[in-house]
Design brief:
The chain has 388 residues and is an all-beta fold. It has one helix at residues 306-312, and strands at residues 11-18, 25-29, 34-36, 44-45, 51-53, 56-65, 79-84, 101-104, 107-110, 120-129, 136-149, 155-159, 164-167, 176-185, 188-189, 195-201, 209-210, 218-220, 226-230, 236-244, 260-266, 271-277, 289-298, 313-314, 318-321, 329-330, 338-341, 353-356, 360-361, 365-367, 385-387. A hairpin with a 2-residue loop joins strand 8 and strand 9. The longest helix has 7 residues, at 306-312.
């Protein structure tokens, strides 16, 4: 007969804790190159024994509880391992107090100062052997070390317009929009002391592209605080503003993490078209044809004027027999008015016909190209664009 022992699982906890309650987040002054707390200094304590400045000392505070009461914590001999950034190759073994990271007993001492751009991840591992069955127990925890730039030295970019703009093509006063930004360092306006950089995204910020000659919607300002765009040439757009500060207004590329974004998109109107006859609803056998036109209602606005209908609407008139499954007959007419011959209106069997304008609304301007993909270029070098 064989007898096996089954033990209840252990309750284990490991936390990386700073000795002396010193903050693990530093505050960094970029102008003065000063940190608080400053890890390069000798530890400083207040009257209550709390550390207020100096080297950050990290302790592995672990707890193992045995529900069966068979394990005494005092009998355990843990091994503590410390790593920086990489648990595979970043193990800290130095005991030299002049190093950025070094070991004192089972604790990790940190003498390195961090910035808002670069911190460090501390990984701790505690290994003990379960005295009940000689099985290894591994506990681990991580702690992120970083620094926060002092508020008065942080660059903030903000937009002086709504971040979400709507373009109503039928009723907007102009398709031109100015998206203006401002830069402050603390409370001080820095617009003239930084370099400005705008780029754009056509997939809601997943990827960003450089504004170049292919951007028909671009008007001006991609390297100023005010970007001007023309929504006659794009249906939806997201733009991003960034700054460079290293060499002031002459900085060649963005070098500050902060950014501001805005989006602008068309809002298509709800149109309701009604067909009417200039001669009334009655059809006479002697009429060679009848003329029909369009009244277009626009929700929350006046009916479209003749000029608006000509500019914005596309028609392709068709006619079909009511109740018939036959395909509609295209009249090859694309004006706002159409003359329908008697043959489509007065059938021998008194059929009823339905006239449909197949109405569509034009969108943004696009460059006209040949079937092979080449753009049509005018004699003076400009390309030709129409509303699509």
């Amino acid at each position: 007969m064989s007898v096996t022992m089954t033990y209840r699982p252990l309750t284990t906890v490991l936390r990386i804790e700073p000795l002396g309650n010193l903050s693990t987040t530093q505050f960094y002054s970029q102008a003065a190159l000063e940190w608080f707390p400053d890890h390069t200094k000798t530890p400083v304590f207040d009257e209550n024994g709390h550390q207020t400045d100096g080297t950050l000392r990290l302790h592995a505070n672990y707890f193992i509880q045995d529900e069966d009461g068979l394990i005494d914590m005092a009998d355990l001999s843990p091994q503590v391992f410390w790593y920086i950034d990489d648990a595979e190759s970043g193990q800290v073994t130095d005991t030299d107090p002049t190093k950025d990271f070094y070991i004192v007993g089972r604790d990790l001492y940190v003498r390195k100062n961090f910035t808002h751009l670069a911190g460090a991840k501390v990984y701790c591992e505690v290994r003990v052997t379960d005295p009940r069955n000689s099985q290894p127990i591994v506990l681990s925890d991580t702690l992120q070390l970083n620094a926060v730039l002092k508020a008065k030295e942080q660059y903030a970019i903000s937009l002086l317009c709504d971040k979400t703009l709507k373009h109503y093509p039928l009723h907007a006063a102009s398709p031109i929009y100015d998206i203006e930004a401002e830069c402050r360092k603390g409370a001080i306006l820095y617009d003239d002391r930084v370099a400005w950089f705008w780029d754009y995204s056509d997939n809601m910020g997943q990827t960003w592209k450089t504004i170049d000659a292919s951007c028909l919607w671009y008007v001006s300002g991609k390297n100023t605080k005010k970007l001007r765009v023309d929504m006659d040439y794009i249906e939806s757009l997201m733009v991003r503003c960034r700054i460079g500060v290293t060499n002031g207004a002459q900085t060649a590329a963005p070098d500050v993490n902060n950014e501001a974004t805005a989006s602008i998109a068309w809002r298509w109107p709800k149109l309701n078209a009604q067909v009417f006859s200039y001669g009334g609803d009655r059809i006479f056998a002697e009429n060679a044809s009848m003329r029909f036109g369009l009244i277009v209602h626009c929700q929350k606005h006046n009916d479209l004027t003749t000029a608006e209908k000509k500019h914005w609407l596309l028609t392709s008139w068709v006619i079909r027999k009511q109740g018939s499954s036959a395909s509609p007959v295209f009249l090859n007419k694309h004006d706002l008015e159409v003359d329908v011959p008697q043959s489509y209106l007065f059938g021998q069997n008194l059929e009823k016909f339905i006239l449909d304008p197949n109405l569509g609304m034009r969108g943004v301007y696009d460059i006209v190209g040949l079937s092979g993909g080449d753009e049509i270029e005018l004699s003076f070098g400009q390309t030709f664009a129409i509303r699509s």
